[in-house]
Amino acid sequence: MLVQINNNLNIDIEINTERFNSIKERNTLYLQKISVDTIESGNTYKSMAKYYFYQLNLNTNPSDKKIKEKYMILDEESHEPLLENFKIVCKSIENYRDIYYNELDKSSNATIWLALLSSKNFDELKEMASLVMNKNDREKFIEECKKASKDRVFLSEWCADMFAADVEAKERQADYEDGFNDGLNNGINKGINQNTTKIIKSMLEKNYSLKDISDITGKSIEEIKEIEESMKD
Q: CB–CB of 118/60 below 8 Å?
């Protein structure tokens, strides 16, 4: 999502639901494309310097151990920033959730907002939202969240990183196919199926309907039900 403020401040907000090898490169290219599309041909450096391009990456993968990271373009020798107006910041939402529930920084609005984005259900969402919003804003926010939870286009976008990770796994499979035996290929296929199962489990935990999961993953409802039953064991 691209947020533009006063025509010169551009904030690209990315929600990464899965960590995979090319995520940093991909998101950096997104921000570069935004900058190229925004600045007009013939602009002087002075006029271009008024533009700011920031990217906020909100990572929801529980395996992400770093709470926050920041990336900038640096001079190779001095390591000083070359551009102050081009920055990428990554925040691990799940880690902020842990901070919130362990009451390490529960009074910070920033912590609450980031933890709020990791809410597992609407009751939890309401509880956190009540700490940073007035009643009217909270009700509007909850209503929009409910609409989004039923929007199939939004759900597809939300799962995009999961499937990008799956595609990356399939591409690695293609690279390994030549010159390797059937046993290795079978192992790779097993890994891809395990990744799809992981995606389905994550969607079930977020209370997506069986039909939506089937439409997005290509798995039959019967297969999804089997996975759902296995989660109860």
A: yes
> What percent of the residues of the chain are helix, what percent strand, and what percent coil, each to the nearest 5?
55, 15, 30
Map out the domains of the chain as residue ranges: 2-94, 152-230
Structure tokens given for 85: 């107006």
pLDDT digits (tens, 9 = 90+) for 163-221: 555 555 555 666 655 554 555 455 545 555 666 788 788 888 888 888 888 877 778 88
CA atoms within 13 A on the CB side of 227: 22
* Edge-to-edge strand list for the sheet holding 86-92: 2-5, 9-16, 52-59, 86-92, 68-72
Sign of CA dihedral 121, 124, 127, 133: negative
Percent of the chain residues past pLDDT 70, beyond the cut: 73
Q: What is the pLDDT of residue 57?
A: 79
> Coil, strand, or helix at residue 12?
strand
How many angstroms separate the CA atoms of 95 and 18, rounded? 15
Q: Could you give the CA distance from residue 56 to residue 58 in angstroms, rounded to a whole number?
A: 6
Sorting pLDDT into bands at 50, 70 and 90, what band is 134?
very high
- Other residues' Cβ atoms within 10 Å of the Cβ of residue 36: 9
Query: How many whole angstroms separate alpha carbon 147 and alpha carbon 34?
Result: 28
Length of the chain: 233
In sequence order, what are the beta bridge partners of 187? Answer: none
pTM greater than 0.85 (yes/no): no
Q: How far apart are CA 78 and CA 80, in angstroms?
A: 5
Strands (E), the chain: 2-5, 9-16, 52-59, 68-72, 86-92
Which of these, 19, 17, 12, lies nearest to 33 by C-alpha position?
12
